[in-house]
TrEMBL record:
This is DNA-binding transcriptional regulator of glucitol operon. The chain crosses the membrane at residues 12-32, 44-62. GO terms for molecular function: DNA binding. Keywords: DNA-binding, Membrane, Transmembrane, Transmembrane helix.
Length: 121
């Protein structure tokens, strides 16, 4: 279960999140030093906001990891219930002109599928 989080993609994500989390604290400290040197209210607010951004990003990342652990690893694989092709139903109860047009489209579809299947063999 936890081995899914040790793939190269996930390891890179772990490292990226760790680096960005630490970087937000350095940015907050930088803004704090600017504020202490007379930077004003904007620098004081940014000194508080940067660490909050770091915790917010960490919170979203933890949620993403939890969703990955809950996800069924085989849900992306096609199953037996997957319908690859279904013949279009032609409505013949309404307008005869529309029914003729739908029949024409169905015929074109059958020809296109016939050419694709003969190329694939």
């Amino acid at each position: 279960m936890w081995t899914r989080l040790l793939t190269p993609r996930w390891v890179l994500l772990h490292l990226l999140v760790a680096v960005l989390f630490v970087a937000t604290f350095f940015l907050g400290y930088w803004q704090l030093t600017k504020a202490e040197n007379g930077g004003g209210a904007v620098n004081w607010s940014y000194a508080l906001q940067w660490p909050l951004y770091g915790f917010m990003g960490l919170w979203f990342y933890v949620r993403m990891v939890r969703e990955e652990l809950r996800r069924d690893p085989d849900e992306d694989a096609p199953g037996n219930s997957l319908v690859l092709y279904q013949r279009p139903r032609i409505d013949t109860t309404g307008d005869p002109e529309l029914a003729a047009y739908n029949a024409y489209l169905a015929e074109l579809n059958e020809r296109a599928l016939g050419q694709e299947s003969s190329r694939g063999r």
